[in-house]
Amino acid sequence: MLNLILLSVIVCGAVESRGNQKKLLKDISNKLIQLDEKLSDVQQKIESIEDRLGDSCTGTWHLGMNINPADGHIFGYTVGWATGNDIGKSEEALTKDYLSANVWVLPASYIAIVRHQQGVVDAVKVFKFKVLGESLSIRFGLPRMNPGRQIVTFGGPIQESIASDAENLEDDPIFSVGGDLAFNWAYSNNGCRIALTGGHLSEADVNDDNTHGLGNHFGVNPLTNTIVDNQWTHDISNIQDCPLQTCTNVRVQGTDHGSGPHLKSGPVYGNYAIYVSRTADKFPEPGFKLGLEIEV
Q1: Which of 6, 168, 183, 189 is most open to solvent, judged by the fewest CB atoms within 10 Å of its CB?
Q2: Contact criterion met (CB below 8 Å) for 139 and 183
Q3: Distance CA 141, CA 139 (A)
Q4: Are 193 and 211 in contact (CB under 8 A)?
Q5: Torsion over CA of 218, 219, 221 and 222, rounded to 10 degrees?
Q6: C-alpha distance across the termini of the chain, in Å
Q7: What is the value of pTM for the model shown?
Q8: CA 172, 178, 224, 130: dihedral to nearest 10 degrees?
Q9: What is the C-alpha to C-alpha distance for residues 152 and 129, in angstroms, rounded to an integer?
C-alpha cells in the first residue's frame, strides 16, 4: 500500500511539473511574439525616417573661412588656422580673406571646399571626416600640429561638382588631384594647412618646398606655428613638381605671398571657401549663390 501511495505522489508530481513547463513555454512564446511585433514597429519607423531623409542628410553649412589670394592679406600657415580668431568682416566674407571664430569651434562631421567666383559656386568637393564632431579649432590647433601630417578624411570626396565652364582646372590645388584631405602637413621647415593626398606630400624630414595647397609657408616651424622667415608665406600654391633643389619658379595664385624670390605671382582661379556641417553631406551645385549659412 505504501508503495502505491509513493508511486501516486511521484506520478502526480511529474504531471504537475510537465504542466508548469508547458505554461512556462507558452509564456515565453507569447513574449517572443510581442517582442517580434515591437521590433517590426521599430523597423517600420526606421524605414519611414529613411524615406523622409532620402539618400542625403539635411542640415546647415556654415562658412568657416574664405581665402582670396589677391586681397592684400596673406592667409599663410601661421595666420588664423591655429588661433581661430576672427578675420575680416561678415559683409565681405566671400570677397576677402575671412575667418569666423564662431564657426571655427562648431562640431563638424563634413567639410566642403568651394571654389567660387564672386560668391557663385564654380566647383565644390565634400568630404566626410574620419573623426566626427570635432571642430576646425581642434583639427588645426597647436596640439594637432605636432607632429601634424594628419589624413583627416576617408574614401575621397563624397561629392565633386564642377561647372561645365570652369577654367584653370589643370593644376588647381583642390580640383586637379584626387584623394583625401591632409591637414597640417609639416615637413622640415615648411607647412601646408590643406593638401590632397593625390598631390605630392613631402616626407617629414625633407626640405623640398614641394607640397602645395591652401595656407602655405616655406620658412616656419610647422610644429609650433613659429615663423622663421616671413618672406616665404603664401595663400595658395598650385599643383606642380618644383623641388627646392632644382626649381626656382613656384607658381602661386594671386599676389598674396611673401617676397621670397622663388614665389611667382599668377592668375587667381577664384576664392576658396571652407564650409562645415554636423549633418549635411551634400552641397549646392555650381551656379549657386553662397552665403554665410546654407540650408540643404
Answers
A1: 6
A2: yes
A3: 6
A4: no
A5: -20
A6: 89
A7: 0.82
A8: 140
A9: 6
Closest by CA position to 107, among listed 276, 285, 284: 276
Query: Residue 71, class by beta-carbon neighbours within 10 Å (0-12 exposed, 13-18 middle, 19+ buried)?
Result: buried
Grid coordinates representing 103 are 564657426
Q: What is the mean pLDDT of residues 56-72?
A: 95
Buried/exposed code over 97-136 (b: 16+ C-beta within 10 A; e: otherwise): bbbbeebbebebbbbbbbbbbebebbbbbbbbbeeeebbb
Integer-rounded Cα radius of gyration of the chain: 30
Q: How far apart are CA 221 and CA 187, in angstroms?
A: 9
User: Which residues pair with residue 275 across a beta bridge?
Assistant: 63, 112
CA distance 233 to 209: 11
Q: pLDDT of 242-268, one tens digit each? A: 999 999 999 999 999 999 999 999 999
Q: Cell numbers 596640439 correspond to what residue?
A: 143
